[in-house]
Amino acid sequence: xxxxxxxxxxxxxxxxxxxxxxxxxxxxxxxxxxxxxxxxxxxxxxxxxxxxxxxxxxxxxxxxxxxxxxxxxxxxxxxxxxxxxxxxxxxxxxxxxxxxxxxxxxxxxxxxxxxxxxxxxxxxxxxxxxxxxxxxxxxxxxxxxxxxxxxxxxxxxxxxxxxxxxxxxxxxxxxxxxxxxxxxxxxxxxxxxxxxxxxxxxxxxxxxxxxxxxxxxxxxxxxxxxxxxxxxxxxxxxxxxxxxxxxxxxxxxxxxxxxxxxxxxxxxxxxxxxxxxxxxxxxxxxxxxxxxxxxxxxxxxxxxxxxxxxxxxxxxxxxxxxxxxxxxxxxxxxxxxxxxxxxxxxxxxxxxxxxxxxxxxxxxxxxxxxxxxxxxxxxxxxxxxxxxxxxxxxxxxxxxxxxxxxxxxxxxxxxxxxxxxxxxxxxxxxxxxxxxxxxxxxxxxxxxxxxxxxxxxxxxxxxxxxxxxxxxxxxxxxxxxxxxxxxxxxxxxxxxxxxxxxxxxxxxxxxxxx
Amino acid sequence: xxxxxxxxxxxxxxxxxxxxxxxxxxxxxxxxxxxxxxxxxxxxxxxxxxxxxxxxxxxxxxxxxxxxxxxxxxxxxxxxxxxxxxxxxxxxxxxxxxxxxxxxxxxxxxxxxxxxxxxxxxxxxxxxxxxxxxxxxxxxxxxxxxxxxxxxxxxxxxxxxxxxxxxxxxxxxxxxxxxxxxxxxxxxxxxxxxxxxxxxxxxxxxxxxxxxxxxxxxxxxxxxxxxxxxxxxxxxxxxxxxxxxxxxxxxxxxxxxxxxxxxxxxxxxxxxxxxxxxxxxxxxxxxxxxxxxxxxxxxxxxxxxxxxxxxxxxxxxxxxxxxxxxxxxxxxxxxxxxxxxxxxxxxxxxxxxxxxxxxxxxxxxxxxxxxxxxxxxxxxxxxxxxxxxxxxxxxxxxxxxxxxxxxxxxxxxxxxxxxxxxxxxxxxxxxxxxxxxxxxxxxxxxxxxxxxxxxxxxxxxxxxxxxxxxxxxxxxxxxxxxxxxxxxxxxxxxxxxxxxxxxxxxxxxxxxxx
Lengths: 514, 514
Hints:
2 copies of one chain form a homodimer.
Chain A: H1 2-12, E1 19-26, E2 36-37, H2 41-49, H3 55-64, H4 70-77, E3 85-88, E4 94-95, E5 102-107, H5 108-139, E6 144-147, H6 156-168, E7 173-174, H7 177-183, H8 193-197, H9 220-230, H10 238-250, E8 256-258, H11 264-281, E9 288-291, H12 296-314, E10 322-325, H13 331-340, E11 346-349, H14 351-354, E12 364-371, E13 374-375, E14 393-398, E15 404-410, E16 423-426, E17 434-437, E18 441-444, E19 447-451, H15 461-473, H16 477-480, E20 489-492, H17 494-507
Parallel strand pairs in A: 6-7, 6-11, 8-9, 9-10, 10-11, 15-20
Antiparallel strand pairs in A: 1-5, 1-12, 2-4, 3-5, 3-19, 12-13, 14-15, 14-18, 16-17
């Protein structure tokens, strides 16, 4: 409604075609960290490409916005986003506060209308991708991370976005089949408690059909019960055992059992082992188990020990059995598990990943920085909320060791930093904080992705995922670490710094107290 | 993927047509409170009504799920949700942990497939409605609450859901025009910083067209400048003044100005007042101002004082001017503003409302409670995670003073509680906690909303909103309060309590330590 009302007021004062530039950026990295993974670019470009109002939309708008005259109706009907330009970072880029992740240029009226939608389409994807990347850093490279969040996400499309962008940020798959289908993400998911509870005893699987790996008819239940009599620990639940047998019969190559329905160590694990041993006997490799409650570090170590001992006792190799863990896992849990030591191979993560429980919004903003080639500043009593005026050239300066040292913004007509030459980087607000950098490499950060037409091929999800991983690998680890990470420098050229200070003191009124 | 895999395993073991009942419930009220507002029912019924897989879906499923044979394909293709029954609370009901907000009955295979989707469709709506209701309680009945969250919501549809269910929970409107259009919610929104920044000085509004309330051409800028010379306080910014004049010229009946772009008290307010006085002179009523930064309690009081003094000085009535406040407002801010005293009439609330920052997920669960008339229990080492077995009759018992005293669950064949007769209510887990209640009224909580056909007219958003408000009004205030609210009783009949204990001890294996 703001955007419509403002567009209408621009239209009435004849400013709707003024040439505007808006920066889209955030002011603080999420999750108490010092980096963010940029995502959402492709959705923005597609949104802008297809942006138009139907007659029905316009009727609604004009019945609800103040004073909607025929000329403005007509303007709304003929909005042409081919007059808009979208500059942005590459999707999957590591990025930092205040440097615009996108700049939108074009007629003031149209750029204004895009504000809320663009913020929505960048904030949540970038937040999820960052959350996923942080969980990947906390769990280590060799673990498998699966997104399990559909049931807990904020709406059906919140769930699909979460699957998509957690994959971009470094997850390996999702349990959401719609997301899998739409974005070609590997899917996984086996059984939940209901399956196990639906069985009450062994009589329910009397007529089980089962053939071994060579296609011969076999008595799976008989074999399982033979092993059961040899596995003495625990006091297993019969319904659970029946459910495992029936599941193994249905999917003998995909037997992964949820073991905590009744009691993990006293029922789930012994029941799993009997079925696993029988499957082995018939030529199949059981996959493993899932823990969904209890102390995951302790249980996983206990379970691994039982697996090894049972393998030894029955002379079978159980070393490839996977332990999957789920149950309210977040970044801190992963970090704490790493510290304690554990035997988990695969993490299933839902709520904390998809809702970003630790910080459910990135807080992106969309600020006017230039009108008709004249830079604008948005002031604030808080210095960190002041915007950096004008269209800016943005570069990343890479140091001798190959790590990025700083991002720097320059005025449009300045000479870019050069390899091997000293470049003065100024803190955006504090005059005394400045440093020379001699870059070994200079990377241009903004690319033009929409200029009335797709100007660059939009990256595939797989490409952006790969790019994000590479970016994280070549970032200095102290910027990425969980505890007290080092802030990354985002700087201004000296000319831009001075220009901003000048504009600032010109626009701000002097206060008065009495 | 779980649901598909399980359905496939049920199918293979011939259990897919077993008669199942699942409870959908939550274990803990959100936001450290003691109540929840139930929402999402209509979406669930519509989802179930339209639930089917396309051939393309089935191809995808069968390429990705383990062992998908032609018979299962065929079953997927012919899923018929007219065999499913949905019982639920009325949308907008106040509800409490453990009592099922819905019960789904039907073939085990189909009910299982619905799990994740139904959880998704209930959790977020109920969470948002509860969050909105809590904000309404914190702000008081006479304030206007507008949802401003599109830019910060979790995905575009997360935003639309947030608008819809915050309205249900007691908000008055939204700034999201799509939500307004889809659900007939009042919309509002005036201007943001970009509008003000887009003006740099008075020369930009030279050719302003303006007519007074009687249609006569008038010099608005001249009138404004005349008042400016008489308003001595502050050091106002000219660009801001130009933007206010242009906005007032466009919408003289809807002039609500954002006053914190440069400096609220030294620029925004004096600029607003000059324009407001000029509008008054020409027969229009200015609407008010919006504060978007700073100390809202203090500023609102200062601004009200300036409004009153200016009104007195120029002999105009400024008492109807509205003060709107936005900027990261949450429930605690509202409560704290109430304590401090303030002069705000309207709150615009975004991030904290729509992402439910204080707790972004309700954590609903969907548990199998009965198969073929045989009750099932899901055990857990944590007593509070044990499910209450079987299909249950659910009643709310109203006390002498008209307030609900307890909700109670009974076995299907028990006699319901009767008005004026003692009924023994047992705590679900603790044997010693039990109390007699003599209800003055007994309310049946579950209604059948889907039985292969819509069995009850689904309530409109407006009806559910009204119902939620009535429910809150007739709930004892100590259950609703912000600090240390009193837990509401959710109980079992004695028979259900004993039955559950019996099943529990039968199913749980005895532990063993060595």
